[in-house]
Amino acid sequence: MTTVTDATTAASGEVTHAEASADLETVRLVNGLSCELPANSPLAKLLHSQRTWVGPDAKQRLAILRAAKSVAIVGASPNPARSSFFVGTYLQQSSDYRLYFVNPNATEILGQPAYPNLAALPEVPDIVVVFRRGSDIPSVVDDVVAVGAKTIWVQLGIWNQDAAYDGEAKGLTVVMDRCIKVEHARFHGGLHLLGFDTGQITSRKTLR
């Protein structure tokens, strides 16, 4: 943020209120309260790095997966080496979700058409799964809200808690830093609750 000062102030070295405010950053405390601190202070940096947002618990995530009928994957890739391709393959083969792939640079993924954005989908998805950088999540939140989807599911390893708070403030259910493939498999008996492979093989479709 740039603050314009007059020549007299600049020459005297005085700091205006606007200049001081420009260096402040709003940080969220563990108890959920917010306060303003100098952006370059050690405390501000520490608090900014700490995770204070808590998403839906296991029962709530199960309810999300049970209620959903359609899933869109933003950042889906046609590259078999990418995690989004692996997750898309799993959902395509092991769930009854209507599955949509969103990638403006692809025309087809896993035999299905790829869409340039969420607005181009033929329906509003129940869950929007996101494979994008953490810094991109705020814009994806805005896109999810704009199309009227209710749940944004940010994949494992991706974290932006400011976007999580913002999404909730805008009425979204937010799941973050969790793999939808792992969660779906866990609730279907393929994984122990701690995430280990149970070795159980079943064709039952109890929770889809």
From TrEMBL:
UniProt-recorded name of the protein: CoA-binding protein
SUPFAM superfamilies registered for this protein in UniProt: NAD(P)-binding Rossmann-fold domains (SSF51735)
Question: Which intervals hold domain CoA-binding?
Answer: 64-158
Lineage of the organism: Bacteria, Bacillati, Actinomycetota, Actinomycetes, Micrococcales
Q: Which domain of life is it from?
A: Bacteria
Recorded source organism is Agromyces ramosus
Matching entries from Pfam families are given as: CoA_binding_2
PANTHER family, A to Z: COA-BINDING DOMAIN-CONTAINING PROTEIN, CYTOPLASMIC PROTEIN-RELATED
